[in-house]
Amino acid sequence: MTYHEPTIASILRLLAEEHQGSVDERTLLDQVLARRPSSAKNPYATIRDRLRWDGLTLGWVRLSRTQLIPLRIALQDLTFRCQPRDCDLIDGLLPVVHLQPFAGLRTYDCLVQDADGKLLPLLGIEQEEFRHPSLPAVDLRAWYERTGFGPGDSIIVTVVKAQPVTLSLEHEPYTALRNDAVKAQDAELIDAIVERVRRSQVALVPCDEIVLPIFATASWRTTYPGTPWQYLVLNDRRLQLVDDIFLTTQHLPVLSLFGHDEVFEAPPQSEQALHAFDAALLAEIDALQKELRYARQHDAEAGLWSGQIQRASAHFGRFEHTEPGQHGLLGGFEDVLYDGMWELDDPWLGEEYEPDPARLVDTHTYTFEEIQERLFAILPPRDVERLREARPEEAEVIVASHLNRLLVQAPELFPRIDHITPVDYVDHAVTAFDDDEDWHEAWDDDEADDEESDLYDDPDDEFEDQTTLAALDQSGDLIGQFYDYLREMGKRDTTARVRSRALYVYAEFLATFYGRTLAEGDYATLDEYLFFYYPQSSAHTSERQVRELCTAIKQLYAFLKERGVIFDTRFAEALWRRRDQAAKVIALYERIPDDSPGSEVLVTKLFFPYIE
Question: FRET pair for 47, CA 20 to 30 Å: which of 39, 179, 434, 493?
């Protein structure tokens, strides 16, 4: 008889059966290694990788960075609400997406029964007689008729068995709905969804990774259920539901990733309601602008600055009202060469990191590992170490600072210009045009090649590049010293890294638009950065992050003063005191609707006086 060593997957499944509550990740990893010892340099890496990509299919729900809970525990006795659409009642169906992610997102192996325990048929994708043949659905024709189900009524669903997932349906008439009883629950749920999506480092997050952890620990998980989470998302301007199963904070065009119509669609709003919303938002922006004017005037009278607004980043082109982070300094360039490279949760390109084949860099000839090896061979050792620990935005700054060197020494890593859309390649990075139409006209011109060559060969541009790179390099040294200082002062490594990393994007801003180092920043540049550039240029920005950034900047300048690099830190302390105003700008910007005719006015008002 052949002995079969247990796999990591099989051990994780067994442990999911054994644990009766949440467990610390490190404890779980040690339990796996106790049953399957490893001699790898970092034996935890492979287990973490399996939990990261296959955790749910292996029976685990991630509650936080350090805590997990068995899926069966998270689901058992959980109660939620479904509200079928009128077309569902006509068809006599309940599309399974109404039951997700509790019925499973990656598989449809759930059982559905009525209050008497009688199983209800689940129709697969082969059915062609219904409105949405591509969507699995529960056949409720007889159940709808038997219960007298009507428009506006709800289905209260309870998970009566977690393995296999068995759902029991109960009819609740519209007249029995207790809206007042669930207001607090709805508010808590949608705020938790928004926060988790914002913290994610990917553009589209599967809803099970967001919704299941919230329900698993909620005090109301087994009590009277509130509004279906899908409808809460659809009615919240901070979020978008894509293909019924993905969540994002970005405002994406309507699309279908799987080729079928979406079940959950945002309800249309009347023009009057939109105008009323715009008016209310404009009033909030005006109130904030009064606070900003007062604060700037007060600081000018205190001698912290001249009161002269600087707009160096305005030449970058007026930021259109799109999702923050769309207009990075590299424009679309990093998306072409480094697709997916910067979105890793773990330290950048760790030694035991195994990339998902679907995320390999699309260079036609080079794999992810080959590009990694080539970059590490060319970049200075110090920057290689920085990249290993860098967050996505920091990695972009580091690579951008060596762009000229990479273009010369490793041109083979870069896609040919005819393999990509020209406007993506030059967007904001080298283009001299303001919109796509101007660019395409020039591209079709016989002299387009000469114009492009001029853009690269301009001596002034080369001088500015050298100034920018030198400033970035010096700022990088300062950030490294600041990190060491925080550690010497007894700060935890995590705290020191977070505060140091927060400074990279400000260093990039100063170097790019002013040719300055962090030591040469002042009140005017910091005000421009916090209240104009940062809210529009940084992806996944939150109110909490901008407050942390202000704290990091204040501490950096206190450190530089202590070391004798600068002599006055009052401007940094003054901007730190305005951190709540910076956070308010972030919050208001996210609430400006893209589809409103008044969005341009709202954006202009919010970023006054940088946009006039």
Answer: 493
